[in-house]
Amino acid sequence: MNDHIDQPSLATLACRAGSFRTAEMEHSEALFLTSSFCFESAAQAAARFAGEEPGNVYSRFTNPTVRAFEERLAALEGGERAIATASGMSAILSLVMAVLGAGDHVVASRSIFGTSVSLFSNVLPRFGVQASLVDLTDLDAWRAAITPATRMLFLETPSNPLTEVADLEALAALAHEHGAWLVVDNCFCTPALQRPLALGADLVIHSATKFLDGQGRCLGGAIVGPAEIVDKKVFPFLRTAGPSMSPFNAWVFLKGLETLPIRMERHCRNALAIASWLEQRPEVRRVFYPGLASHPQHALAARQQAGFGGIVSFELVDRAAAWHVVDHLRYFSITANLGDAKSIVTHPATTTHGRLSQAERDAMGVSEGLLRLSIGLEDADDLVADLARALHGIA
Ligand SMILES: *Cc1c(COP(=O)(O)O)cnc(C)c1O
């Protein structure tokens, strides 16, 4: 029993870590919607600015509500420190700008968020940071892409939209063999399902916009890892460059984290029910979900993750069939997000992956008939009935 008190489990940390109370004794954490903080005297202002006295100065640097979110997320990921950012993309940008410089090299999975590919391929080369893109599940390709200048391996697992799973322990070992860091964008799993730091990763990235919010309200991001990197390198960059998280958004995410473990459980249960049902349908050529025994990395996912996640993709014969389904679903929104209480359907080839060439999409396995579902918290039987109705009438 005492072990539990000293080492609370995830659900307890989600509700309790980082909690704080002002003199008003409120129960729900306070929202400090303020740009700046006051000083008692000129001397105190001087001491705060000089960093000689701890305390808040300005919300681009620190804010109590943002700090509470950071502490709660760090506890869930099992990281020493977290720092919140204005969006998931600004988390990636801030990390890269804080720790890399001209001449450095990154090896990244080809199957990362499209905007992340764009950042690595189009923006960072102008500042002398080069990136090589490799196949997520091909360990030899990762090894072959590493150069003496490689400082970082960057990936998402499971991948979007095909839910391929990378072996985090093997990639962490490979990174460390070459003096590089393994950075994992843990957006799809969240710490409720996967804790990359415990598997050897050095840093975790989040788009809080997705499952951490869980109801599609706010944009936000975070970087989690050792204080030596997060406090000493990323924080000085953030307070100078400015992509800080809004206190309002931090409050929404802080409250979102309280229900994260229970929501992820339901996302996973619904997703498995739908993936299993889709796999039996004659119109469906293939289903991509790590929870299915037919998934190539099913065993690895079962070992590495506490659940298989809320994202299911499946392939129909062609674009016409895929669009027919999109247009006939009632309980799946057509919108550019994922990780919401409301289910979402996406046609990757013409939206998220629409800017890639046909050859690039073919290489990634993103066909014209592919649909991605972000399974929400609705009743699974209602979602299945909706899919059955939408699939009706295609060849
Ligand atoms: C959405 C997303 C991002 C970018 O996050 P924003 O909050 O939209 O900036 C990064 N990585 C993954 C895996 C995402 O799904």
Question: Tell me, what's the shape?
Answer: globular
From the N-terminal CA to the C-terminal CA, the straight-line distance is: 58 Å
How many structural domains are formed by the residues?
A: 2
**What ranges have pLDDT less than 50 throughout 5 or more consecutive residues?**
none
Number of strands: 12
Per CATH, which architecture of the largest domain? 3-Layer(aba) Sandwich
**Count of discrete alpha- or pi-helical segments spanning 4 or more residues:** 16
Q: What order do the SSEs take from the amino end to the carboxyl end, as H and E? A: HHHHEHEHEHEHEHEEHHHEHEHEEHEH
Q: What Rg, in angstroms, do the CA atoms define?
A: 22 Å
Using the coordinates above, name the CATH class of the largest domain.
Answer: Alpha Beta
Tell me the major beta sheet: 7 strands, mixed
The strands making up the biggest β-sheet line up spatially as 1-7-6-5-4-2-3
CATH superfamily of the largest domain: Type I PLP-dependent aspartate aminotransferase-like (Major domain)
CATH topology of the largest domain: Aspartate Aminotransferase, domain 2
Q: Report the sheet-strand fraction.
A: 5-15%
